[in-house]
């Protein structure tokens, strides 16, 4: 792998940033009155939360080199972000907070204003529906939080807060960069008496740096926030997002080999389109001095289309071709139509001498229907070869339909033991009913129906010591869980006639994870320090085997453990630096694969960022991320200690100048022009080494105008 930065240069790069690129604004300082909502779903002091929580402020986002939310999470939050289509728009980015590798995005709960936005399948969060200018702050909670949020809150929680204060913000921005990339944002937020109106929008387009990687995205979000007095408030938020992207094939070989600009002809023209719309609403109402009632409601409707123009690439009309003749191609048009409805009422009660009690109920119902149709040529082949070539029932399309209904109740209790110590604990019981229907051109047994009900429990116990203003330490145990995604009900396998095709896999059991954690948060010496040490054990882990195409519950336990540290310090009012990192091990704990690492999980993540205000108008800054080597994605029975995906260092630098209400900025991303990849496949029954190359160096020029 070619790369101008080498891992051994990290210290030199970080030092250079600290000396040359200090900060424009101060990093977020956790004062004794810092208030968050992610810890318990109610507002509370950060130092009362027994968890590792970091806050990314609006100012930090504005004064960084980040153009998208995934870039914010990686460059400021220090999280592990990966993707296949590495364009500047990060439309398919996934976040792995818990070291779960290929299923990391399914074990990270992503919220907007406390409301879950994760899809019910294994797809990625639709980041494009959240205009980056609408963000007031991002709260990142590391570790399990299924007591508060239920399914999927195993590795951590990302809560994107768009409910801002009454400060008026009216600004527009435009960026243009390499490969014809343009990113435009606007936000208009104004308060009239006790009513705040906010509308934000984004348009993004890129030609892509590789063939067949062009993409565009558009989103708009409109919100009304009403202050009802006495701490009572309500809001309604309506949004719409559209994306259209192409996906190039991987490069065959080890990372760094081959031609990253090459694209397999059978993948030429592949196109993926989504339409995503919905609403979110929330109400907070005081009921006397000691009770607070809150309720959230949300609805989402998403339609996705995947078009494969070369679906018949391997079709043969030659009878002498014994390998391909008589077989149809792959589906040409694939459609997914899904919706989710959720409601979450909860109440918080403060009892003198006893503490705080939170009781809540979560209900959600979701459905996703999928259909796959074949080209006219393949349809004629299917109809002409009934039974002889594994085609049945004169079907010319495949279809799947799945419904999930979730009901759960939870309780959280906090008991003050003294002025310093507070004990807390919680419990959640979630029951999921899942039902499916599927049929296929290969299904000799026609339509297959199935239904299943599973339940999972979450719990936590913690002791928090808030011994000084802005300083606390905690010790904690928790159990979290995740249910299978709807697409994990199906897999590639052998159908009743022996053909290797998409078949019903069965509804899998939920996985459970127990985590032991000790950590703390300290605001001292003009610095914010957050750190924790953790150890977790997972049973029934929901996994995918690339060599067999099967989704399954692993019968072997997997363990994870490590340490996190983040330090942000204000050296002076114009000079600020931050460093952070995570060291972790993710591995099989028993069975024939005992000691083998989980693929696509780097052991070490390091992050350094810094800004410097040269004058009142001119500033410079930068960020550097280091990711250690990791294992290619492969089945556990194909594990090999070598080769591995190599480590890499990626750095961005920028400079900006302000004049009155106008700000101009020049950003160089991947300034060292590192050639790297965040995802690659290893050897397997149907695969060989391949990787998706990430974007090389790019340059962006931006201008922002503030109307206030």
From TrEMBL:
Query: What family is it from?
Result: Belongs to the TonB-dependent receptor family.
Per UniProt, the keywords (alphabetical) are: Cell outer membrane, Membrane, Receptor, Signal, TonB box, Transmembrane, Transmembrane beta strand, Transport
Q: Which GO terms describe its cellular component?
A: cell outer membrane
Entry's localization field: Cell outer membrane
Which Pfam families does UniProt cross-reference here? Plug (PF07715), TonB_dep_Rec_b-barrel (PF00593)
Q: Which residues form the signal peptide?
A: 1-28
Q: Does the keyword Phosphoprotein belong to this entry?
A: no
Q: Note the topology in the membrane.
A: Multi-pass membrane protein
Please report the stretch or stretches of sequence annotated as the TonB-dependent receptor plug domain. Answer: 47-157
Q: What is this protein called?
A: TonB-dependent receptor
State the organism named in the record.
Polynucleobacter hirudinilacicola
> What does the record list as GO biological process?
siderophore transmembrane transport
Q: Sorted alphabetically, which SUPFAM superfamilies does this protein's record hold?
A: Porins
Which InterPro entries does this one have? Beta-barrel_TonB, Beta-barrel_TonB_sf, Plug_dom, Plug_dom_sf, TonB-dep_rcpt-like
Q: Which domain of life is it from?
A: Bacteria
Q: Per the annotation, which location comes first and is thus the protein's main one?
A: membrane
A single MF term (Gene Ontology): siderophore uptake transmembrane transporter activity
What positions does the domain TonB-dependent receptor-like beta-barrel occupy?
Answer: 239-670
């Amino acid at each position: 792998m070619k790369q101008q930065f080498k891992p051994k240069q990290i210290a030199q790069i970080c030092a250079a940033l600290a000396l040359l690129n200090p900060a424009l604004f101060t990093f977020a300082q956790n004062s004794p009155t810092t208030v968050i909502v992610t810890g318990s779903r109610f507002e509370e002091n950060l130092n009362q939360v027994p968890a590792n929580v970091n806050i990314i402020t609006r100012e930090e986002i504005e004064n960084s080199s980040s153009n998208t939310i995934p870039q914010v999470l990686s460059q400021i939050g220090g999280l592990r972000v990966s993707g296949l289509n590495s364009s500047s728009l990060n439309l398919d980015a996934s976040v792995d907070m818990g070291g779960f590798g290929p299923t990391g995005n399914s074990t990270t709960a992503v919220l907007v204003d406390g409301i879950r936005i994760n899809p019910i399948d294994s797809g990625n969060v639709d980041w494009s529906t959240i205009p980056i200018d609408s963000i007031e702050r991002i709260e990142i909670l590391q570790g399990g939080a299924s007591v508060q949020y239920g399914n999927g809150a195993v590795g951590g929680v990302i809560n994107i807060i768009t409910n801002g204060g009454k400060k008026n913000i009216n600004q527009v921005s435009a960026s243009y960069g390499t490969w014809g990339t343009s990113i435009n944002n606007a936000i208009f937020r104004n308060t009239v008496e006790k009513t705040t109106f906010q509308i934000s929008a984004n348009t993004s387009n890129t030609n892509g740096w590789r063939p067949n990687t062009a993409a565009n995205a558009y989103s708009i979000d409109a919100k009304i926030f009403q202050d009802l007095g006495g701490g009572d408030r309500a809001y309604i938020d309506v949004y719409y997002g559209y994306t259209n992207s192409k996906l190039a094939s991987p490069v065959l070989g080890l990372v760094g080999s081959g031609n990253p600009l090459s694209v397999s002809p059978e993948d030429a023209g592949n196109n993926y389109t989504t339409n995503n719309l919905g609403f979110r609403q929330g109400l907070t109402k005081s009921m006397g001095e000691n009770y607070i009632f809150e309720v959230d409601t949300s609805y989402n409707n998403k339609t996705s289309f995947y078009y494969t123009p070369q679906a018949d690439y391997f079709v043969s009309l030659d009878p002498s071709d014994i390998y391909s003749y008589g077989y149809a191609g792959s589906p040409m048009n694939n459609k997914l139509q899904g919706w989710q409805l959720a409601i979450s009422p909860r109440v918080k009660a403060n009892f003198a001498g006893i503490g705080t009690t939170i009781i809540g109920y979560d209900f959600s119902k979701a459905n996703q229907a999928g259909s796959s149709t074949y080209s006219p040529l393949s349809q004629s082949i299917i109809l002409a070869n009934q039974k002889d070539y594994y085609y049945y029932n004169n079907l010319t399309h495949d279809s799947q339909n799945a419904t999930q209904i979730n009901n759960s109740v939870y309780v959280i209790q906090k008991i003050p033991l003294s002025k310093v110590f507070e004990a807390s604990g919680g419990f959640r019981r979630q029951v999921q009913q899942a039902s499916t229907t599927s049929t296929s051109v290969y299904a000799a047994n026609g339509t297959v129906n199935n239904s299943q009900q599973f339940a999972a429990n979450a719990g936590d116990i913690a002791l928090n010591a808030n011994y000084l203003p802005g300083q606390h330490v905690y010790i904690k145990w928790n159990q979290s869980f995740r249910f299978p995604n709807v697409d994990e009900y199906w897999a590639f396998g052998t159908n009743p006639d022996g053909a290797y095709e998409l078949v019903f896999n069965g509804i899998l059991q939920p996985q459970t994870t127990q985590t032991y954690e000790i950590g703390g948060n300290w605001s001292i010496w003009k610095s914010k320090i957050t750190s924790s040490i953790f150890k977790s054990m997972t049973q029934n882990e929901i996994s995918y085997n690339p060599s067999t195409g099967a989704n399954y519950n692993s019968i072997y336990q997997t363990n994870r453990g490590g340490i996190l540290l983040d330090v942000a310090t204000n050296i002076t009012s114009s000079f600020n630096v931050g460093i952070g990192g995570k060291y972790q091990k993710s591995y099989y704990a028993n069975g024939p694969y005992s000691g083998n690492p989980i693929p696509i999980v780097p052991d070490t993540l390091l992050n350094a960022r810094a800004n410097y205000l040269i004058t009142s108008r001119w500033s410079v800054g930068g960020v550097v991320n280091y990711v250690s080597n990791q294992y290619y994605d492969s089945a556990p029975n194909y594990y090999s200690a070598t080769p591995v995906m190599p480590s890499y260092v990626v750095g961005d630098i920028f400079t900006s100048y302000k004049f009155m209400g106008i700000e101009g900025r020049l950003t160089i991303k991947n300034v060292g022009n590192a050639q790297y990849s965040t995802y690659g496949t290893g050897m397997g029954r149907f695969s060989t080494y391949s990787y998706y190359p990430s974007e090389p160096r790019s340059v962006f020029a931006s201008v922002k105008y503030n109307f206030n």
